[in-house]
From TrEMBL:
BP-aspect Gene Ontology terms: cell wall organization; cellulose biosynthetic process; plant-type secondary cell wall biogenesis
The name this protein goes by in its record: Cellulose synthase
Entry's localization field: Endomembrane system
Molecular functions per Gene Ontology: cellulose synthase (UDP-forming) activity; zinc ion binding
Binding-site positions, Mn(2+): K253, D277
Tree of life domain: Eukaryota
Keyword Transport carried by entry: no
InterPro entries: Cellulose_synth (IPR005150), Nucleotide-diphossugar_trans (IPR029044)
GO cellular component terms given for this protein: plasma membrane
UniProt keyword annotations, A-Z: Cell wall biogenesis/degradation, Glycosyltransferase, Membrane, Transferase, Transmembrane, Transmembrane helix
Residue sites binding UDP-alpha-D-glucose per the record: S75, K81, E82, D111, K252
Length: 445
């Protein structure tokens, strides 16, 4: 590069000196930009996960699982632009993950307050009662039915149960009937009644005006009725549509995520949060466990803010020269950033530590929810701190220390030979339909 610029500078074009000068300046600028773009790539990090060590430490057979609860957020707005069938596949892949069912909660944010989204989610909850036990019984991958049944592979490979073919055929028929029901809901939603939508009991749908409606929460699956066809418990599934009022700019994804954080804190209060878009499905049922390899690492887990999954895409030519698969960004740039200070948050497919978002461990006691206000006098000087204020301040200090340890401290202090989780990277991905799977982890400290 130096030889090139030495030649360009030492051989000016006398007949077009102005154009030559502009071209040299542009070339120098582009060269500088290229150099700056190379710096983050000089120290890429490759990480690996060890699920067997995670299981030996936190999920031993015959003992209660010590894996942390996870709240998963799925965001959607307009079901006519974001097909409900795709959202349903995303939700089904979440409900069927390989993780303790009592520690998984799925929250679907409907920022468009569409009755179509609500009804399709109700149908999804019913179909999940059949789909989830089928996936876990036969170890199905991926666990989004649309993409599982589209796979052009030998689906009998590694299957040894004689009933698999019959059950698969029956499940495929069930899924096709489920698709017909979803399509019927979409066709019905094409024409909105003049008086607005009404619910089954005859009352008006609260979200008929998407910009002026109360908050809505509906628990479809949970402890009270979340059982599959085999009688086993299912993960929680919650529909959330935040309150909207005219005159407020609250129609963006960040506000919807804030609302989900508050709702989930009251209902389940999982220690970790994972947010995905409605067209991103899990193509690995062990994605949550792999995220916990970093979040629950005894050495680095408490210092980890989030783990970012890369994205993988379906339906794109493998030889696409325009890089629509984002390989350069996720496989090169993000790895390089991981070697510096950690990757950027790309807006989806990210597992957060709830404590990092709160600034302290979330608490739900009535005393801790009291506001802590610094009272000032009318002239601007602070009033003398009262005992009540000091008590509140002390309580705030206590919040910074977890009352319920995330890890089994006895195991950490004693040490378990051979069980230490290494700081590594495995693949995790999102396909567009993006999917969260396992390969390429990015950490942020």
């Amino acid at each position: 590069m130096c030889f090139f610029f030495q030649y360009r500078v030492s051989h000016p074009v006398r007949d077009a000196y102005g154009l030559w000068l502009v071209s040299v300046i542009c070339e120098i600028w582009f060269a500088l930009s290229w150099l700056l773009d190379q710096f983050p790539k000089w120290y890429p990090i490759n990480r690996e996960t060890y699920l067997d060590r995670l299981a030996l430490r936190y999920d031993r057979e015959g003992e209660p699982s010590q894996l942390c609860p996870i709240d998963i957020f799925v965001s959607t707005v307009d079901p006519l632009k974001e097909p409900p069938l795709i959202t349903a596949n995303t939700v089904l892949s979440i409900l069927a993950v390989d993780y303790p069912v009592d520690k998984v909660s799925c929250y679907v944010s409907d920022d468009g307050s569409a009755m179509l989204t609500f009804e399709s989610l109700s149908e999804t909850a019913e179909f999940a009662r059949k789909w989830v036990p089928f996936c876990k019984k036969h170890n199905i991958e991926p666990r989004a039915p649309e993409f599982y049944f589209q796979q052009k592979i030998d689906y009998l490979k590694d299957k040894i149960q004689p009933s698999f073919v019959k059950e698969r055929r029956a499940m495929k028929r069930e899924y096709e009937e489920f698709k017909i029901r979803i399509n019927a809901l979409v066709a019905k939603a094409q024409k909105v009644p003049e008086e607005g939508w009404t619910m089954a009991d005859g009352t008006a749908w609260p979200g008929n005006n998407p910009r002026d409606h109360p908050g809505m929460i509906q628990v479809f699956l949970g402890h009270s009725g979340g059982l599959d066809t085999d009688g086993n418990e299912l993960p929680r599934l919650v529909y959330v549509s935040r309150e909207k009022r005219p005159g407020f700019q609250h129609h963006k994804k960040a506000g919807a995520m804030n609302a989900l954080i508050r709702v989930s804190a009251v209902l389940t209060n999982g220690a970790y949060l994972l947010n995905v878009d409605c067209d991103h499905y899990f193509n690995s049922s062990k994605a949550l466990r792999e995220a916990m390899c970093f979040m629950m690492d005894p050495a680095l887990g408490r210092k980890t803010c989030y783990v970012q999954f890369p994205q993988r895409f379906d339906g794109i030519d493998l030889h696409d020269r325009y890089a629509n698969r984002n390989i350069v960004f996720f496989d090169i740039n993000m790895k390089g950033l991981d070697g510096i200070q950690g990757p950027m948050y790309v807006g989806t497919g990210c597992c957060f530590n709830r404590q990092a978002l709160y600034g302290y461990d979330p608490v739900l006691t009535e005393a801790d929810l009291e506001p802590n206000i610094v009272v000032k006098s009318c002239c601007g000087g602070r009033k003398k701190k009262s005992k009540s204020y000091m008590d509140n301040k002390n309580r705030m200090m206590k919040r910074t220390e977890s009352s319920a340890p995330i890890f089994n401290m006895e195991d950490i202090e004693e040490g378990i030979e051979g069980f230490h989780l290494q700081d590594g990277r495995h693949t995790a991905s999102l396909k567009h339909y993006a999917s969260i799977s396992s390969s390429l982890w990015f950490l942020r400290f």
